[in-house]
Design brief:
Low-confidence stretches of chain A: 1-26
Number of helices of chain B: 11
Radius of gyration of chain A: 26 Å
Shape of chain A: globular
Number of strands of chain A: 6
Strand content of chain A: under 5%
Oligomer: heterodimer
Structural class of chain B: alpha/beta
Chain lengths: 625, 444
């Protein structure tokens, strides 16, 4: 079986050199040679203890709201960039609500915010949003991307996993209840070893990837699932590219193939011998395996070699390692969160940071290795990681810190500053690595869909339960096997939040697919943000877009009953749809354009709907500013 | 080489590199026979299989890994007769009389092999190089490597069989970790060629243009207030491309300007061949317009998967495809497209020499046939061979990895250099190993 492992190539000054095809160690399956960890590897930033020395000169730092700002501000001032002021009220409220809840502010919320004169009105919104049940619905998707979660198996039959949604609901609840991150992980890796039965569902984390239950060789199926689990644990929780090491020692990072199979050893007993066409989705105390942790040359099942131990990667421990004899997974979780392991905290706070700023402090949240790129602000990373540890691993509290920072609240635009100041900023910081302005970013697929449903008044906030199926275009139904997609009977189900839509691994909803929702084939730490013509076609012409435009039209007309049609009627209408979609009032020139546009024909209703559709199609609508 | 984030169509960061060296062909039409056509009944004559028919496979062939435990079933003789064709004498069975007329143009590889006996894994491997789901398909790699040849149409187009889904589904033409702009776009004959090409309610282009002008006014004002932003600018461009596609795609699928003769040539006037003929003609029209990679699927969810009865299954599918495929070859020549187009014909695997359910055959990835045609490959050639019964590739075996490498090579792309940096790795179509070879024996 040709598994994808590591590309044995090194890039030096842009040139591609080829290393010898295979390092011979793994060929010796009964006595594999483990490469020594070099001093250079030991010195790599990711494996150092947390450390965040304060900037030398604090006196010049007057912009900061929370400590993380100190290092951001200091780096900016060192290259003579003045940090930007806070974004204006509407922009900030929209940014905050889209980020924390994945929904745009309602016209009423905008009005209340504008007229609120209290000095802590922003802080109050932060608390309000963090306490909303919509928060867990927004942030669960981030974790489900990491967990490569879907509601079906993939491959030929793409069978439905009837119980899978319980895991999705478990994640939403855990986030809403702010279960500390260490417990959150403990339940997912070892929920079957604790007393409470309800936590077993959390162990689907390890088994949520693609599976081929009808494969002839069920031993191979188990082997693949264990390797997928091990890769996911390494990538998701340590940010280490473990998937590379199932076939060869990692070429750059200190992850040997033995490291891989020792980590896998911790989970070896949790996946029993599998039975054909039988799903296996959660760990089960009644179903265990007594197979010995083993080394597999080239990652191949048929090349089973020597027995290996059970241990975390060498780079993160001192010398040999023995777990107490039973409940290794629980001990492994304890090890993950002990103070000497800086990676659990670093990796997770960087995941959060990536969501808020579009780019991580280190670029790839699943890769702390040498190819992943160095952190832009190591002190910010480590300070946040320390806070996270010290505040009992509260995910809400660390997010509160981030959104209260001046860094997060700053403007993305030039505003009143001179063009030369702005151009200097772009020149000094072309990729916005220094965060010399708030990074504008396109919404994620689910946020686009949910925002359209919310703005048009259709959204149905039913929580939890089986995945719902909005109707699919007939062209797409024909790419599926018969009966694989049956639109939910109740129309209200079609307007539920995206997190509750049924996630078929072999076919994403068109709006999700074009806007870069990952395909759940492997753990995804950072989504692409592509720009394509098929996105434009989806937004302009899909029945979904049309229905949102119609609904917002009807809703707005109804809200204006009792108002006499007068000269200002159209203008009031326009204001309402602008606020609903873009969270702001139209500028004069924009009103003029729309009035020109609608006066060119007599069919008012259709024309106004096409104006609404046009607003949903603006760059402004799908951009978080 | 660039990272997978924040890619922008048409701008440098997500855009393409161009060929590494002088290409031999500019585009590929891949006729994908889904389900696995039987090489021993179509392109790979095996007199020894006829002789041994009814007996079990001799022990000398060793253990055989199969999908449905058919290893001990009696061998089944080829269900149709073979005959030498053309000047080259290339042997093809009676199933395919029309394609046989082009025997001297076919470059037939009789020694293909892959790694999985399962449909979805084999469909993925044939399309993406990996048995795992979620990797970029060949068409996506080529789009990424070469960019678009037509600014009004997608670079990679898929013409799915209307009869039903393939096993493994749309990930077969997905772009995996490559940017979404490189994924295969399904196009269908008729009034709705591309998903959401036109609004459900009105198709008045003039009104659409007016609406788009309004959108772009908002967008330009928005952009100006932001002192330039590549991504915002690219999205403005994407809307213009979408509008041009709204004009180009209906023109593409409108066959009214094609002559009666052409329509007859493809069998569009006959019920049996109408569907596949239409799609073959669309394939020609697509490459004529500069589309780089066109994949035409034959076969519904079961397709060529002849477990029960090869004779009835293949009779039906050959009848539907033989004439259109031959027409496509002739038509490419007629339109001067032959020399820089490569046509590929093949499925995700072949079939076993043993019988299944008496007259059917099980999957065989260990040895099977694929053919190519076009200016860059040697016509009338049979390259490589399977063993005496057609079970395994034994002479000059061509692994799918080398087949993919050869496709890239013909397009002027170096398979070892075409890479994309993702999750800390330089990912490639051919995978991590450098143990790849261009199949130089087939090049013209």
């Amino acid at each position: 079986m040709n598994h994808w492992c590591v590309t044995l190539r090194i890039r030096i000054f842009g040139m591609v050199l080829l290393l010898p095809a295979i390092l011979f160690a793994e060929e010796r399956k009964d006595s594999p040679i483990e490469p020594e960890i070099t001093q250079e590897q030991r010195d790599h930033w990711a494996y150092q203890p947390l450390s965040f020395p304060l900037p030398a000169d604090l006196s010049r730092l007057d912009w900061s709201s929370v400590p993380l700002d100190l290092w951001i501000e200091n780096a900016l001032r060192s290259v003579n960039i003045e940090p930007l002021p806070q974004a204006n009220a509407e922009t900030l409220l929209r940014r905050l609500k889209l980020d924390l809840l994945g929904l745009p502010p309602s016209p009423q919320e905008i009005e209340e915010y504008r007229s609120d004169t209290s000095p802590d009105k922003y802080e109050k919104r932060v608390d309000l949003f963090l306490a909303s049940p919509r928060y867990g619905e927004r942030w669960a998707q981030m974790w489900l991307d990491v967990a490569r979660y879907a509601d079906t198996d993939g491959f030929e039959h793409d069978h439905v996993r009837k119980e899978s949604w319980h895991y999705r609901d478990w994640v939403i609840r855990a986030l809403n209840e702010d279960i500390p991150f260490d417990q959150f992980v403990r339940m997912q890796l070892a929920g079957d070893l604790t007393d409470s039965d309800e936590n077993r569902i959390a162990t689907m984390f390890g088994l949520a990837g693609p599976d081929m239950p009808d494969i002839n060789d069920q031993e191979l199926r188990r082997h693949d699932r264990l390797n997928d689990l091990t890769s996911t644990v390494g990538n998701a929780l340590l940010g280490m590219q473990f998937h590379c090491a199932q076939c060869h020692d990692h070429v750059y990072d200190p992850i040997s193939q033995l490291d891989f199979y020792r980590l896998r050893g911790i989970f070896e007993s949790a996946i029993p011998a599998l039975r054909r066409d039988q799903p296996f989705l959660v760990f089960d105390p009644a179903k265990r395996s007594d197979s010995t942790p083993t080394f597999y040359a080239r990652g191949e099942l048929k090349s089973a070699g020597m027995e290996v131990g059970k241990a975390p990667p060498r780079i993160l421990r001192q010398g040999s390692f023995t777990f107490p004899p039973d409940k290794e997974r629980l001990h492994f979780v304890e090890w993950l969160f002990h103070e000497g392991n800086p990676l659990s905290a670093r990796v997770f706070v960087n995941r959060l940071w990536t969501q808020y700023f579009g780019q991580g402090i280190f670029p790839n949240p699943n890769d702390v290795g040498v190819m992943g790129g160095a952190p832009s602000h190591p002190e910010v990373l480590d300070w946040l990681a320390k806070q996270f540890q010290q505040n009992g691993w509260s995910m809400k509290s660390i997010q509160q810190t981030i959104v209260l920072s001046s860094t997060y609240r700053q403007s993305s635009r030039r505003d009143g500053r001179s063009l030369s100041d702005w151009n200097a900023r772009l020149q000094q910081d072309p990729n916005n690595k220094l965060l010399s302005r708030f990074p504008r970013r396109r919404m994620h697929a689910e946020v686009i869909r949910d925002s359209m449903l919310a703005a048009s008044g259709q959204i149905h906030f039913e929580m939890y339960g089986e995945g719902c199926m909005p109707p699919l275009p007939s062209e797409l139904l024909s790419t599926l096997l018969k009966g694989q997609w049956k639109a939910s009977e109740s129309p209200a189900q079609h307007s539920r939040r995206s997190i509750y839509t049924f996630a078929r691994r072999n076919l994403r909803l068109p709006i999700f697919e074009v806007f870069d929702r990952p395909d759940a084939s492997a753990s995804c730490g950072k989504r692409d943000s592509s720009t394509t013509a098929t996105q434009s076609l989806q937004m302009l012409n899909s029945e979904f877009s049309q229905s949102c435009a119609e609904s917002l039209y009807q809703k707005t007309i109804q809200s204006m009953t009792g108002i006499e049609p007068a000269e200002s009627y159209n203008h009031r209408f326009l204001e309402k749809i602008f606020v609903s979609i873009l969270s702001r009032y139209p500028k004069d020139v924009e009103s003029d354009w729309v009035h020109q546009y609608v006066s060119s024909s007599s069919n008012d209703e259709k024309l106004w709907q096409s104006v609404i559709l046009a607003l949903f199609n603006t760059n402004e609508f799908i951009t978080i500013e | 080489m660039h990272s997978s984030t924040d890619t922008v169509m048409g701008l440098d960061r997500g855009s393409t590199q161009g060929p590494h060296f002088e290409p031999r062909v500019k585009r590929i039409i891949w006729l994908f026979m889904h389900g696995g056509p039987s090489h021993v009944d179509l392109f790979d004559p095996k007199p020894e299989l006829a002789r041994l028919s009814g007996q079990v496979l001799p022990d000398s062939f060793g253990e055989v890994s199969t999908r449905r435990k058919v290893a001990k079933n009696p061998l089944l003789e080829p269900v149709r007769k073979f005959a030498p064709r053309g000047d080259s004498g290339l042997e093809i069975s009676e199933f395919l009389p029309e394609i046989s007329e082009y025997a001297d143009d076919l470059c037939l590889i009789r020694s293909m092999h892959g790694d999985s006996v399962n449909h979805p894994q084999a469909v993925y491997q044939t399309n993406t190089g990996s048995v795992l789901m979620g990797r970029p398909s060949v068409g996506s790699w080529i789009s990424y490597g070469l960019g678009s040849g037509n600014e009004n149409l997608p670079t990679f187009v898929v013409l799915p069989d209307p009869g039903g889904a393939i096993k493994g589904g749309p990930p077969a033409w997905g772009s995996g970790f490559l940017p979404a702009s490189y994924q295969g776009i399904p196009i269908r004959p008729g009034s709705k060629p591309i998903l959401n090409l036109n609004p459900a309610v009105t198709t008045d282009l003039e009104l659409q243009r007016k609406q788009l002008d309004l959108i772009q006014r908002f967008n330009h004002l928005h952009l100006n207030e932001r002192d330039s932003d590549d991504v915002l600018n690219a999205r403005i461009e994407a809307y213009e491309l979408a509008f041009r596609m709204q004009i180009a795609a209906p023109e593409l699928v409108d066959l009214s300007r094609e002559s009666e003769e052409t329509l007859q040539l493809y069998g569009i006037d006959q019920k049996t061949t109408q569907d596949f003929g239409t799609r073959c003609l669309l394939a020609r029209r697509l490459v004529e317009r500069g589309v780089r990679f066109v994949q035409v699927y034959s076969g519904d969810t079961n397709g060529w998967d002849a477990h029960q009865d090869v004779e009835s299954n293949h009779s039906k599918l050959c009848a539907a495809t033989d004439k259109p495929v031959a027409a496509l070859l002739g038509d490419l020549k007629r339109h001067g497209l032959w020399n820089d187009t490569l046509v590929v014909w093949g499925g995700e695997f072949g079939r076993m020499p043993m019988s299944e359910s008496k007259s059917g055959r099980d999957h065989n990835p260990w040895g099977y046939s694929i053919w190519m045609a076009g200016g860059a490959v040697r016509g009338g050639l049979a390259y490589g061979a399977t063993d005496d019964v057609g079970l395994r590739a034994v002479e000059k075996p061509v692994h799918l990895r080398n087949f993919h490498a050869t496709l890239l090579h013909l397009l002027g792309l170096d398979p070892e250099a075409l890479s994309f940096f993702h999750n800390g790795l330089d990912e490639r179509l051919i995978g991590p190993t450098n143990d790849v070879e261009i199949v130089s024996g087939i090049l013209a």
